[in-house]
Each structure stands twice: as structure tokens, then as C-alpha cells.
Amino acid sequence: MKLTAHENIEAPVGFVNAYLTDFEFWERSAMRRGAEVVRLDHMRQPGAGMEWRIGFLYHSKKRSVELKLLKFEPEHALEFDCMAQPAEGILGIELAEMGPHRTRVSVHLEIKPRTMAARLFLQSLKLAKGKVTRRFAIRLAQTSADIEDRYRQETKA
Q1: What are the b/e assignments for 87-119, b being 16+ CB within 10 Å?
Q2: Whole-angstrom distance between the N-terminal and C-terminal Cα of the chain?
Q3: What is the distance between the alpha carbons of residues 59 and 41, in angstroms, rounded to a whole number?
Q4: Contact at 8 Å (CB) between 124 and 118?
Q5: How far is CA 81 from CA 7, 18, 52, 128, in A?
Q6: Count of CB atoms within 10 A of residue 16's CB?
Q7: How far from 122 is each of 55, 84, 132, 140, 153, CA to CA, in Å?
Q8: How far apart, in whole angstroms, are the C-alpha atoms of residue 119 and residue 78?
């Protein structure tokens, strides 16, 4: 199953890149939501090869996902490998500078089942693809609004 969403953000590409690659911020954000986040690598600088194990409850069951940064091109692209027991996926984020204070973010997610149960689950998602795609786009729009808000706050100071 493939999901795609695009959003234009009123902030420079460098600022958007810094926000998206603030991995400590994302780790803390996940932990505030109840997830257990364990960093598996020992890299000091952001780059390809960074890895995390994320544990969380979903439908009253403990789930675990291993996330690995496959591609890291500052101000251009990020690509993550998401590996869970029932499914695996590739999450791609592309940044395009559209002007000095405007950036287009494109997010692509491709999920492949690894078990029969995951195949059935993804099949049910495909039946509701319009709704799933809309929710995916809404989540990207919310994150984009957060980036714009932070940019406005930092430019005022």
C-alpha cells in the first residue's frame, strides 16, 4: 500500500530540515505519547545508519518497530526503513525549496505485509484508502503548521 502527501510550508528549507532532523525532539515527543524509544546506534551526528527501536501499545497490544535512517541528504531527502513483525515499510521525505521562505514537503509511505494477518489488515486499509489518505494528509498538514508556528516564533525573537 502506498500513501503520498504534499504540503507547502511558509519557512525556509534550512529551517524545515532542522526541524525534521531534530531526532532528539522526535524521541521526546514519542515518549510523551507513551512510547518506549531506544536508540540502537552510537552516532553523534545525524546521518544514514541511525537506528531506533520503538515500543508502544496499539489496540491494547504491545507493538515494536525498528526504524533505520537509510538516506540522509540535508535539505533534500530523508528515507527511513520501518521494520515491524507483521509489516515493513519505507518512509520517504523530500524537501524542495520553492522560494526564500517557502518549502514543499512530500511524504511517501509504502507498506508491505510480512504475514497473512498483515496482508488482511492492509487489504482492509485499501478498501478505505480515501479515508486513510485523507488522515495521512491531515497529519502532514498539522506537522507543517507546527513548523510554521515555530518559525514565526523564532523570527520574532
Answers
A1: bbbbbbbebeeeeeeebbbebebebebeeeebe
A2: 43
A3: 29
A4: no
A5: 22, 20, 11, 24
A6: 24
A7: 21, 14, 11, 21, 40
A8: 27
Cell of 32: 510523551
In this structure, the number of other CB atoms found within 10 A of the CB of residue 75 comes to 15
Helix axes 116-127, 129-156, angle to 10 degrees: 80
Distances (CA, A) of 55 to 45, 94, 105, 112: 24, 26, 27, 20
Beta bridge partners of 95: 105
| Rounded CA separation 56/64 (Å) | 7
pLDDT per residue as tens, the chain (157 positions): 999 999 999 999 999 999 999 999 999 999 999 999 999 999 988 999 999 999 999 888 899 999 999 999 999 999 999 999 899 999 999 999 999 999 999 999 999 999 999 999 899 989 999 999 999 999 999 999 999 999 999 988 6
Give the Cα separation of 150 and 43 in Å (integer).
Answer: 27
Per-residue cell: 90 = 519505507
Beta bridge partners of 113: 87
